[in-house]
Amino acid sequence: MDKVLTVEAMVAKVPDGASIVFGGSSLSRKPMAVARELVRQGRRDLTLIVNIGGPEVDLLLGAGAVKKVVYAFVGFEILGLAPHFRQARQRGLAQFEEWTEYTVIAGLDATIKAVPFLPTRAGLGTDVLAVNPAFRRIADPFGSGQELVAVPALNPDFAFIHVNYADCAGNAAILGDTHIDPLAAKAARTTFVTCEKLVPPEVLRRFGRDASILRIWVDGVAEVPWGAHPTGCAPQYRFDLDAFTQYLEAAAEPERWAAYLDRVRQLSPEEYVDHWGGTAGLQARLRV
């Protein structure tokens, strides 16, 4: 079954007010072409679910597209804080729900298992339970006396995941750490995959266990070279320090940020690659 779409067609299926879980982690393998397309198409009131969030969350907050963020962390790692995330938190421009890495995993897993919550010890002895009213302290119902945390199921409407390779049916291979991506693909009502390259099924099968996302979970797939840029997509390319520097400089001044958003709205995925020097220029700077 051919599930090939464009990024534009994928995002066109996302209504205002939808909840979206993003794959990748931090500055690694984020579906940035999707985040830019959400800005291009003017989505609003989105709920974003991330484990380790980065520029995808910050860009959408800076574009005024977000109602709520469920997260364990959002930042730019060695490059510092995520400027629009910080501003939105300080000014109360959106709702924020603090989780931990493991509880995000447990919340997605609860949906996969078709249960309303999963019990865990994660969060006990921390302030997470004080700042997140979504969690509940419960006693072991089998009488051991143990105190546990009930983590509610996370039910995203959409998952967007960027991978190294995929076939037309939606099977996908991630080279390296899969992060939460297989869980996100299973838990979401609709899962879309973007990939660096579409390959025939017989080629994808050569990746063995790296083909960790199966077609049964995927509703559409798009070939989007450099679709994670400016984050990295190992082993094809590393994150782009120059692009992040420009982003952070623009985010520091309202007029420059408005111009940055205008550029995001104007450039198609293909034009975006050309803007950064085309495939040859990007490879020369970022090829691992």
Descriptive notes:
The chain has 288 residues and is of the alpha/beta class. The protein has a domain at 1-115 and 154-221: Glutaconate Coenzyme A-transferase, CATH 3.40.1080.10. The protein is built from twelve helices and 13 strands. The protein has helices at residues 7-12, 32-40, 55-62, 83-91, 101-112, 128-131, 181-187, 201-204, 241-251, 254-266, 269-275, 278-286, and strands at 19-22, 46-49, 52-53, 66-71, 73-74, 95-98, 117-120, 136-139, 147-152, 158-166, 172-173, 190-198, 220-223. The strands form three sheets. Strands 1, 2, 4, 6, 10, 11, 12 and 13 form an eight-stranded mixed sheet that branches. A three-stranded antiparallel sheet has the order 7-9-8, covered by helices on one side. Strand 12 (190-198), helix 8 (201-204) and strand 13 form a beta-alpha-beta unit. The radius of gyration is 19 Å and the shape is globular. The chain starts with 6 loop residues before the first helix and ends with a helix.
Question: Helix and strand string, N-terminal first?
Answer: HEHEEHEEHEHEHEEEEHEHEHHHH
The averaged pLDDT comes out at 97
Q: What's the multimeric state?
A: single chain
Name of the top-level CATH class of the domain at 1-115 and 154-221: Alpha Beta
Q: Could you please say which CATH topology of the domain at 1-115 and 154-221 applies here?
A: Glutaconate Coenzyme A-transferase
What is the share of helical residues? 25-40%
How many helices? The count is 12
The structural class is alpha/beta
**Could you tell me the radius of gyration in angstroms?**
19 Å
Main pleated-sheet profile:
8 strands, mixed
- Beta strand %: 15-25%
CATH-defined superfamily of the domain at 1-115 and 154-221: Glutaconate Coenzyme A-transferase
Question: Which CATH architecture of the domain at 1-115 and 154-221 would you pick?
Answer: 3-Layer(aba) Sandwich
Outline: globular
